[in-house]
Amino acid sequence: MSEIYCKGCGALIQTEDKTLPGYVSDKILEDFEPSNMICQRCYRIRHYNEVYPYTVSNSDYIKVIDKIKEEDALIVKIVDIFDFSGSFVPAIKTLTGNEDVILVGNKMDLLPKNVKPKKILNWLKLMLAAQGFTVLSSILVSAKYGDNFDELMELINKYKGKRNVYIVGCSNVGKSKIVNQILKRYLGEHSDVLTVSISPQTTIGLIGFQLMDGSIIYDTPGVINKHQYMHYLTRPSYKLTVPKKEIKPLIFQLYEGQTLFFGGLARLDIISGETGDKISLITYFANTLNIHRTKTRTADDLYRAKKYTLLSPPFTPDEDVPKWVYHEFTIRDNQKYDIVFSGLGFVTLRAPFCVRAYAPFVVGVYTRLAII
Ligand code: GDP
After folding, report:
1. Ligand 1 test: best mutation among 145, 170, 172, most atoms within 8 Å of CB?
2. Given 3.40.50.300, 3.40.50.10330, 3.40.50.2300, 3.50.50.60, which CATH number is that of 53-225?
């Protein structure tokens, strides 16, 4: 058969292996228009909300993304504003062979409403400067609500000329949701065309759509950053952990020798604080995640006794996350910093401080100048 690609994920349509993306039965292959075909995996994700993990190997990802090197294109690089470092992919210019990049911070709906977008954009500039990464422009959007899409399209039209546009970035930053918004708002689609899912790597190949002026906008597969917490969570844990709506920050006044548990997923110990005793900190996590305060002296005992109950998720030994390690951060100036648990959330506090942050050894834990 001539090559047909799934409209939802870009995988090559095949009738051989049910376990792989792109599978359709012989009957579907006969009955459906090739241009409208979606594979069984996309069908089940959309209609039954099933989780279908599939890993695009690094070499397959590079093969797909390498095609972009063959042309002069505009790159629209998406980051998850809630987990900037975890979703940044600094090598994107080398991977795509293109220098012209618009940076899009997605999921702005998760940030508290009183935070000024300008402040976040200024912070993004600082982060980019620290990485030595230059962009044509930066913008914040919410693909969920369609916020700032007119401004995003204006930027794309301003910089693309006659070139094609590639939407790139780490898995789960919202690339497919962004392309769906563009298709619905500007190209007359009535429903979502691309399959969007909480599973990473739903998009398998390049999927292109013609814009009004003939150039093509492509959704691309995402590279997985193994340091994001989500990759180690089972579905019940994931549901409580990944924020779906505006985060309500919580303020804590802690003393030296006190500890916060974030469910049973991470922990922060205050070793010493600003004034030598009390320390104010603000937590930014999904509102559904229980944050529990205790004494550091008894924290290990509490963890052993209350894991899966008070300190959950995880809820059962089957859902255990990889072994924890701690990272100690000592900062002596007097600026505000975030301690970030990649993909889970962050805690803001003013230096000087010394804290220990515990999380699975595979999860990125780092400090940065405060975003808010
Ligand atoms: P992709 O892997 O980069 O293509 O990401 P998807 O478009 O498949 O989205 C990944 C997950 O993030 C899905 O659960 C989406 O519903 C969610 N998501 C995408 N954009 C937004 C957004 O603007 N706000 C929120 N809150 N969630 C979003």
Report:
1. 172
2. 3.40.50.300
